[in-house]
């Protein structure tokens, strides 16, 4: 398996290289073909987003809405990349992330307490400052198509006094 890492942080690259190399991956820096891991400064390039935390390393797959590391332990990343371990965002958390990414009506139908609860959980799970979390959320909406995903969750509502051809009142 091959991974390409986009980052300017050489410590982050070295840690990813060490962990993935031990698991049998070939790791390249900003060149080659393979699974693309990107730090927060290179979000549009990455299939998997990685960033450092005070406790270690966090990796997130925006397509699957799933974290790939457990307890910020970098050694769990190879398992997460193979689809083993990690945890997905709940539907409420995905809606909160979409809201932070600018999707109108993403939190529609939730009470004020539910909104606050899911927004707080998203902030805690990602562990990022608000500007970084909003940048990540905007890219999440583009990459995973949360706009389309959430449209299926919204109830269809008729516009009052909407004219439907063939349904005129007599």
Features:
170 residues, alpha/beta, seven-stranded mixed sheet, 7 strands, 17% strand, elongated
Summarize the structure in words:
By secondary structure, the chain is an alpha/beta fold. The protein is 38% helix and 17% strand. The chain contains 6 helices and 7 strands, in the order E-H-E-E-E-E-E-H-E-H-H-H-H. It has helices at 10-22, 77-81, 91-100, 112-126, 130-144, 146-151, and strands at residues 2-6, 26-29, 35-38, 48-53, 56-61, 66-67, 87-88. It has a 7-stranded mixed sheet, covered by helices on one side. Helix 3 crosses helix 4 (112-126) and helix 3 crosses helix 5 (130-144). The model is unreliable at 149-165 (pLDDT under 50).
Percent strand equals 15-25%
- Helix and strand element order: EHEEEEEHEHHHH
Q: What's the rounded overall pLDDT mean?
A: 86
**What is the strand tally?**
7
Number of helices: 6
Strand order of the largest sheet: 2-1-3-4-5-6-7
Spans of at least 5 consecutive residues with low confidence = 149-165
Assign the structural class, choosing from mainly alpha, mainly beta, alpha/beta, alpha+beta, or little secondary structure.
Answer: alpha/beta
Biggest β-sheet description: 7 strands, mixed
Termini separation: 68 Å
